[in-house]
Amino acid sequence: MVQNNKQYPSLHLMDRKVKPFILSALLLLLFLHLQLLSGVEARPLEVRKLDSTTLRMWAMLHSGPSPGGKGHKSETEDAPIPRELKQSVPSPGVGH
């Protein structure tokens, strides 16, 4: 359906007022979108970082036993090693 501007004179005036508003709103949204995109970036790649092979070799060459400490050593120096192991049996009850 074709509308006649003579019949609806307010449409012609509204077009002149609305178009700049819509255009400026779209430009503002585009600008904000570009600002957000420029603020979001990935971590920079560290090209000079050692590769994994060199890093592993360095770790193997420079590692060693921990300095002192008890570790997993027994509480008593001459603790007897248990020779008999407990006989395990199924637990009592249905379904076990």
TrEMBL record:
Signal peptide span: 1-42
Entry-linked InterPro entries: PIP2/PIPL1
Keywords: Signal
Domain of life: Eukaryota
Region (Disordered): 61-96
Comp. bias (Basic and acidic residues): 72-86
Residue spans crossing the bilayer: none
GO BP: any one term: innate immune response
Protein name: Uncharacterized protein
Biological source species: Glycine max
